[in-house]
């Protein structure tokens, strides 16, 4: 890549190192989630007389959550696209859309958890629910943190504009957001679809 | 690969998004509308999930981008290797260990 078409967020040596460092962090996050998936897979059949996945999962709600998160990952990509075209206003609009979709996802997920607790599936009910709530809760906590993080960056973009520093920070946050969608794909497939009766 | 930097319309992202939606719906279709055995269904939808993760990595996150693209790819492959060892190793050790006690 020549200097002219290098995206702004890669211009300085510091930014390049920050982005590389964040990729290495994401590698560690993959391993973190793999341990939670592993314990879920080991425990999922131990329902201890409580409800199993197919008793409580509702396909429609899970699909809505999936599409909210998928779409928010797409709009986060659009925000980066406009950041690279130096279109500050478009970037801010798509970032706000991303945050709203993320908040919608969280709203759906919290309602889902409340529903499960009413059905008699709390984190203490069985091995299955402990594994389930730990995995899903860790993902939900990541989404919550992402919303706070990106909201704060939005304030910086608003006040300072698209600079070498803010673009590199925002690019890193977008990697984090896409990563959460990757984790969700595996939760959707190997927790929800696997747990339901076909 | 031409970077999204110069292109006017983000085709890459739009195609990735449509593919993600299609793969999700296809997984739901395979799970609920076909009569394959459970293990075949899991193999199919598991493969679809991996495709979708690849779309995120390459079309949205541009894992190969930048001077450190190769380091990123090696780092990802190593992390995925560790994840597979942890998941399949745990299932193997704990299920066969549990079975051996009876």
From TrEMBL, chain A:
PROSITE patterns linked to this entry: COX3
Primary enzyme class: oxidoreductase
Record-annotated Heme-copper oxidase subunit III family profile domain positions: 1-196
UniProt xrefs under InterPro entries: Cyt_c/ubiquinol_Oxase_su3 (IPR024791), Cyt_c_oxidase-like_su3 (IPR000298), Cyt_c_oxidase_su3-like_sf (IPR035973), Cyt_c_oxidase_su3_a-hlx (IPR013833), QoxC (IPR014246), Ubiquinol_oxase_su3_dom (IPR033946)
GO CC terms of this entry: plasma membrane
Transmembrane segments: 20-42, 62-80, 92-110, 130-158, 170-193
Biological-process GO terms, alphabetical: aerobic electron transport chain; ATP synthesis coupled electron transport
Membrane topology value: Multi-pass membrane protein
Reactions performed catalytically: 2 a quinol + O2 = 2 a quinone + 2 H2O
GO molecular function, one term: oxidoreductase activity
Keyword Transmembrane belongs to the record: yes
Keywords: Cell membrane, Membrane, Oxidoreductase, Transmembrane, Transmembrane helix
Function field: Catalyzes quinol oxidation with the concomitant reduction of oxygen to water.
Family designation: Belongs to the cytochrome c oxidase subunit 3 family.
Protein name: Quinol oxidase subunit 3
TrEMBL record, chain B:
Annotated membrane topology: Multi-pass membrane protein
InterPro entries: Cyt_c_oxidase_su4_prok, Cytochrome_c_oxidase_bac_sub4, QoxD
EC number: 1.10.3.-
Broad class of where this protein is predominantly found: membrane
Any one biological process term the GO annotation gives: aerobic electron transport chain
GO terms for cellular component: cytochrome o ubiquinol oxidase complex; plasma membrane
Function statement: Catalyzes quinol oxidation with the concomitant reduction of oxygen to water.
Protein name: Quinol oxidase subunit 4
